[in-house]
Amino acid sequence: MADGTADGMADDMTDGAAVRARYDAEMRLGARPEGPGAVVERAGRVVRHSTPGLGWNAVLWSDLTSQTADAAIAEQVAYFAGRGADEFEWKLYGHDGPADLGARLVRAGLVPGPPETLMVARVADLAARSVADGPALPEGVTLVPVTDAAGVGMMMAAHEAAFGESQPRLHHQILTRLTEEPDTLAAVVAMAAGRPVSAARIEMPAGASFAGLWGGGTAPEWRGRGIYRALVAHRARIAAARGIRWLQVDASDQSRPILERLGFEVLGVTTPYVWTAAE
Prior knowledge:
single chain, twelve-stranded mixed beta sheet, alpha+beta
């Protein structure tokens, strides 16, 4: 993978390789820090993101070979362990080398999560398809913007209903971003009869042409009724108002068909490999 910036790269959705190269250059190689105290730095042929406390720690980009991969992995494990991090994520993309990088990460003690599909849509195309106009919500469901700690608490209740687990780290990260860097994040909760049944956010790094869509999980009894699509449309309107060019999603198998119908295109596959400190 060549070093570089996004300047001058094509944004024609018919050229998926060019769009992916732009994404790699801007959002991985040229990533911005997420949250107060966060640092993005180049360490040899790796770009990593580190944050104190419960913030997100990750390897975002790498350009490794079979001769250099094992040493680079060991260096990152040592780095995050030395910082006292309790975990970090290595975001492995299908086009990253070497071909057996995933197996090497496993041998180093990292555990793979479910693969996700990297999908992208141009905001202008979504508007042209009337996606941003939004479908009607089910009767009795309303979207409530998240603006304070109480709203973040409702988000976490919706996530727990959707995924069956509490997420204190995510709670901390969203609340910190909302408090300290509110222009980089917008979040919303879908409410039904006073109960949060779905939640989602859009993360908008300063100066970036890509924004990421995250969350969108819905309580089982409310699935298949258009809430997820409505949350995508809501966030597409926010992106359009901000002048953001692209929306990006790491889609689950459940979300991918919906996003394809909305006009998102597949750029590849990404798998999170997570290292956890020994207790």
